[in-house]
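Re: the pair you flagged

First of the two:
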Amino acid sequence: MADDHLSAADAEKAKAEIEAEVAGDDEFEDAVEEEDVEDSSNDFKVTPEELSIIRAELACEFPEDYDYLSDAYVLSVASKPYSKDPSIRRPLEYSMEKLSHVMEWRANEGAPDMEDLVRLGNGPESAAENYEELTKAKALTTSLNTGSLYWHGFTKDGHPILWVRTDRKPWYPDVDADVNALILLADAGIKCMPGNITEFVTISDSASPPPPNPTFMIKMLKALVRGYPDRLHSLHSAPVSSIVQFVMNLLIPLMPGRLASKVNLLGLDAMKEKLADMLENGEEDIPTFFGGPADHDAYYPAEGSCPNRGEGSLKFDYFGMVERLEKAKEAWLQNHADASNGN
């Protein structure tokens, strides 16, 4: 189990590394500035004609990946208050540029091809076209195999839930592979969102976090800010340890105001109460690691208890996870259709 305290020397070192990672990254600073406005429920109207203009521009620039962005998400981005003047809507040109930046980031990071890497990592090595591709696929599956991140279930409001198990995270991670796993999983959850939903919820069991890795922390934050703006509905973490507080104290000042306002650090009792109110089936859906009856380990056990899924190195049940999330979405849609019909 990781010690939940950092020495003063380790804390200073991590802080210095964080500052070095951010210094001079103009694209990240620009992305933060674009988002640096508090969250608001006062969204503005976007006309069907404006939506069509945005979609046509994206289809022209990114013909192979443009449909990754749903109409609901495009409308969500375009309807937000303008960071330079929150009393007005984001200008149409601004929203188009913002969405283009997201798509450019996806192309640069190889986001559209991540699931192909999982299939490659789950198959025989002979299927690989080159050694570099196979190495990347194996690193990605190794990161997934920890079972430290997975989707499971929905909130009452229809947001898919990304669960974090910090006690499963390695002390010395492969940062690039872990960021690739985050991209892969984020896209999988987004694809499983009900049609009118554009954001996900993250819930973290932070009882035994590893020592903070500054490079991973910053790359994760950059991915959220540049690749998934306006995607996080809320993040809830419990219990509160000195390591978690240290990490948040470092990261929150670097976050856009809209993102920082969505982070909630809770005690275990408060988390259980929050989950009972938030989860689709209330207390029934609270996992065992937060004192509830739902056994997530039946689907996502620790790596040592996982069989290989194919001929390669994948142990984590990625494709089963996606299938279960799709079924949970359909159940959510049916439940809420019945409720709206008075059944």
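Second of the two:
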Amino acid sequence: MTEKLKEREVAVEGHEREIEDDTNKEKGDRGPKARAEPETEPESSSESSSESSASESEAGIKEKEVAQEVPGLLLPLDTLLGTGIHIGTRMKTRDMEPYIYRVRPDGLFILDIAKINERIKVASSFLARFDPKEIVVVSTRLYGQGPVQKFCELTGAIPIAGRFMPGTFTNPLLQTYVEPKVVVVTDPRADEQPVREASVMGLPVIALCDTDNILSNVDLVIPCNNKGRRSLATVFWLLARQVLRNRKELPEDKELPVSIEEFETKTERKAEES
């Protein structure tokens, strides 16, 4: 098992190093793990992110100044901001501090659009190295289930949407048992069980992480609003597009045959599980 863990670390760190050399991106993103601030229920903008964008006009100028300095945005800046992909919670952990741009007057932490953009590129490039059936994508959260299903439909990965059966990665006797080589989760807190099992099996974990997440057993972070329906749809739409482009299955000048809206979980608005 120790050998597997070492292989996992070498594979992920080596890939990140290659990307850094190519793009001169910031180094040391994933500093030592730190304790989170007190465990209280985070307040997230989630679905209200788009509604609050108008009230952010003044702050939006600053965000545009930062984002415009980064070449190669995966979507137009206004489109990214409109999805609420950058709007975090009123809580932050020290693990996530490197990915936070600022805090709004209302107390919501804002994630750095440049780092969101860069990490989606890194994650999609890494995933493109695997056979589709070696990738498992998990979402316990309701609003992540639709995007996960659509991502897997387009890329050929294995979806686990809804309840994750304990032992899925560790117990060969279970009917749900699978042997992936990489695991993607939509929230390392809500998806704690698959993250823990992946770590036990020495599997690299890619996680969508909000400002309130702790990064224990997470190998590659995609900072984003991981609670909002529109935000989750956007992240998985971009991941799917970039994975297919990296595999040379989708030309660089072509878009996915489905829209971001089609990635959204289709359900009446309900209280999301915490």
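The longest strand covers residues 135-139.

-B.
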